[in-house]
């Protein structure tokens, strides 16, 4: 009898039973609720605040370096006449005329974007010792963003093993190279970081070690910015064996 009780007690001690979560008091629950509401409100306001800050920064930059000089030029041209320039013209009309003039200048410069003059300027700037690396990097970046460069195609999204085996991340294929020894295709992949996708990693990965994703540019960047909250519900995580056709649902990302 005593041995049976000892066996039962020892079995009860060695068996791992899930412990119920500790109950929160009313005060702790209220604090958690308030904290959750504050975080939800912050996540709601941040997109509007960041958007407003970027637009305001762009406006300030244009006003300081483009609109204000053009407005001063308009005022000087108007003051050259015999009639005195009224205050309302200097305050309201001159900035608008300067903005319109800036837009017209940029419009006509667009005709020379792919002309011999633009190529001549590129050739000159790419031969200046100090200016060359800076101008080359900036020029390729803006060409990639405008879609005029063949070196960077951000429409192709792939899944790679990063930062260590067992974990994978989504990145953009920016260019392709070829391994000198084996002849394999090597992809140059830009891996955006969270929550600022403009900073990230540049990795070289063999093409046969990546998994193609059907995510768009907006979906990939949105997933990085939102800490994965807006990531599509369907993902090509595991590589597909050669010759296998993946079944595509009628509407990707829709809830069943």
What does the model show?
By secondary structure, the protein is of the alpha+beta class. Among the domains are: 36-111, no CATH class; 113-146, no CATH class; 157-225. Helices cover 49% and strands 13% of the residues. Strands 4-3-2-1-5 form a 5-stranded antiparallel β-sheet. The longest helix is centred in the N-terminal third of the chain and has 54 residues, at 26-79. The chain is flat, with a radius of gyration of 30 Å.
Can you give me a brief rundown of this structure?
49% of the residues lie in helices and 13% in strands.
Descriptive labels:
alpha+beta, 6 helices, flat
End-to-end distance: 57 Å
Helix content: 40-55%
Question: What is the typical, i.e. mean, pLDDT?
Answer: 76
Number of helices: 6
Rg from alpha-carbon coordinates:
30 Å
What's the helix and strand layout?
Blueprint: H1 2-14, H2 26-79, H3 87-109, H4 116-125, H5 131-146, E1 157-161, E2 168-178, E3 185-192, E4 200-206, E5 211-213, H6 217-225
Antiparallel strand pairs: 1-2, 1-5, 2-3, 3-4
Helix pairs in contact: 2-3
